[in-house]
Design goal:
alpha/beta; TIM Barrel; 16% strand
Amino acid sequence: MMGIQAKLQRVESALAELESHGKACRLCPRRCAVDRRKEKTGYCRTGGAASLSHALLHFGEEPVLSGPDPCGSDNPVALEEGRGSGAIFFSGCSLKCLFCQNHQISWREAGVEVNDYALAHSMLDLQEQGAANINLVSPTHVLLPILRALHIALPRGLRLPIVYNSHGYESAAVLQSLDGIIDIYLPDLKYASPSLSEKLSRAADYSQAAGSALIEMFCQQPVLEIDHRGVALRGLIVRHLILPGHTEDSLVILDWLRRRLAPSIGLSLMSQYSPCFLAPEDLRRTITPREYRRVMDHAMDLGFENLFVQPRPFQPGENLIPDFSRDEPFVWQKT
């Protein structure tokens, strides 16, 4: 990873480059241009400060992010530290998918507004708890307070890899400012079809924007580097949630990733779709084993070298939907 002083300088440079977005926000492709210091009228409905739902050790991310489980890991190396991803869940969202499993915070904005010092303290506290990284969940619309918090936390000893855990609907120009700051990019690539992304996320330009964003992420972090414990230090991991009835769209996405990026990126194929919130009628079911197998087989045929899979599609009554009204929203992870 880049040294602390060098990363701090990059944070200062990014803040200078992005300062104008506080006055006329164009942090995401929706380019609302609202004054975030005074209003909450942009698509994300978030003002100048970050609103925080939860900051906790998250054990349900990809193994290279959450770290190996000492009770059931295939990694023979003794776990010294870094079990659990230090996840910081922000309220609000600049995409707002109709089927969002985090709708309590993305749509309903459950959370508490925090100042930059409190956000920095959350990062440092997660490090003290042994987190493997600082995992910024839905960071796009709160990028400025995140950078200000990093400017506070880095001189105070924050040394963990920074994970940018995003829906993928990003501005490539904004991401350029993060070069040297973000260690691990963890974007979704949700849709290839403009009609599907318009229907489910009111973003007909999703594939165009996300494609440009992922290319920029790959340019910054082209190699997935994993340490002796099996924990990622830097790189790009692309997530794709397979939607019921839309495996053809998934295959197009995999072809694009193989053609435009590289087989060495991390690729996480997720079978956990569960109908919730405002999911339309044609998405009111889980995916079938056949649908998941078709997409997984195609990924294997394309030669992706760092492939993360979920063991099987979820059945009716099973889900991984968190409950952010709880202190521990991921209670299903406990054994």
